[in-house]
Amino acid sequence: MPRAFALIAAFFRRPCLLLACLSLLFFSGCSHQDGNGFFNQMREGKPQEFLQTSVDRMATLAMRDNLSSLYRLQAKLYLRNPEELRKSGFLNIHAAVKQVRLAIEQQQPLPVLGGRKDLAALSYAMSPEFLGDRVGAFIYAIGSMLVTAHGNRTEFYMTDAINPTFVHNAARNIEKATWILSQRQNKEGQPLLFSNEISEEGTNLSFATEFGKIVARLDLITQMLDERYRRIGLNYAQSLLFLNFLPVQ
Predict the structure, then answer these.
(1) Residue 230 CB neighbours (<10 A)
(2) Residues 77 and 191: beta-carbon distance below 8 Å
(3) Structural domain boundaries, residue 199
(4) Cβ-count burial 82-119 (b if 16+ within 10 Å, e if not)
(5) How many whole angstroms separate alpha carbon 78 and alpha carbon 92?
(6) 34, 132, 136, 211: which has the highest count of C-beta atoms within 10 A?
(7) Which one-letter DSSP state was computed for residue 199?
(8) In the chain, how many domains are there?
(9) Does the pLDDT at position 240 exceed 60?
(10) How confident is the model at residue 63 (pLDDT cuts 50, 70, 90)?
(11) What's the CA gap between 23 and 11, in Å, rounded?
């Protein structure tokens, strides 16, 4: 958040740029809706949104939703694996989820993982040698991987760059992690973590569904980023074709 306010201050030091952005927002809004609707949206928006392109805003919302999905999955995994909640040292699911959420979003290590993050944490959390709270470690590992893939940020602005290759790789890693979750077993032949279930007693595929939502959001952001950079290249090629000089201000 402090970085967003610093960017806003930079805009105010350049009033012409700020006025241009406000004018663009005003006229684009008026072209699609009446004045009341536009000003209602302005009141509901946050100041830092002025410093986000449409792709930046989509990436920010996708990150928010993906992390929310992870926290839902953590709570559901505790319900299926109550012994892991006891290992966490917390009395209830809410407190255990809060600890992992703070560690992910503040980019702090999770003590049970010995300083490991993202892929190293994921490999360790899903190994038979790991004896701690496997649910918390598994969710933290995926969450920290997502943050790492997005340049160690959870909110995005005009000055930020997101590498679409890393976001794409994160989506594929989650697909692999989902497979590991459903297939890896301990020495007794039991799953390391109980998740999806297809049996005579019933069917529960909610875990696969929630992970699928995360993968879909990541793939969408990857496509949007690829298209943005492709358009930058096409605009440059068009300027060469028609001998147009590129704007410098």
Answers:
(1) 10
(2) no
(3) 50-241
(4) eebbebbebeebeebbebbbebbeeeeebebbeebbbb
(5) 10
(6) 136
(7) E
(8) 1
(9) no
(10) very high
(11) 14
Q: Is 0.70 surpassed by the pTM of this model?
A: yes
Between CA 118 and CA 103 the distance in angstroms is 12
pLDDT at 70 over 70: yes
Q: Does residue 16 sit within a domain?
A: no
Is residue 249 in a domain?
no
**Mean pLDDT of all residues in the chain?**
80
Q: What is the pLDDT of residue 151?
A: 94
Closest CA to 18 of 27, 7, 33: 7
Using the 8-state DSSP alphabet, how is residue 245 labeled? P
**3-state DSSP assignment of residue 202:** strand
Contacts of 5 (CB under 8 A, 6+ apart): 47, 48
Is residue 14 assigned to a domain?
A: no
Dist CA 175 CA 179 (whole Å): 6
Contacts of 210-213 with CB under 8 Å at 24 or more apart are: 210/69, 210/72, 210/73, 210/76, 211/69, 211/73, 211/174, 211/175, 211/177, 211/178, 213/65, 213/69
* Residue positions counted in the chain: 249
Write the burial class of residue 9 (CB in 10 Å: 0-12 exposed, 13-18 middle, 19+ buried): exposed
The number of beta carbons lying within 10 Å of the beta carbon of residue 18 is 15
Cβ 78 vs Cβ 84: under 8 Å: yes
Q: Which residues contact 181 (CB under 8 A, 6 or more apart)?
A: 126, 138, 192, 193, 195, 207
Q: Is 66 part of a structural domain of the chain?
A: yes
With CA atoms as reference, report the closest residue to 74 among 213, 193, 199.
Answer: 193
Q: What is the pLDDT of residue 212?
A: 95
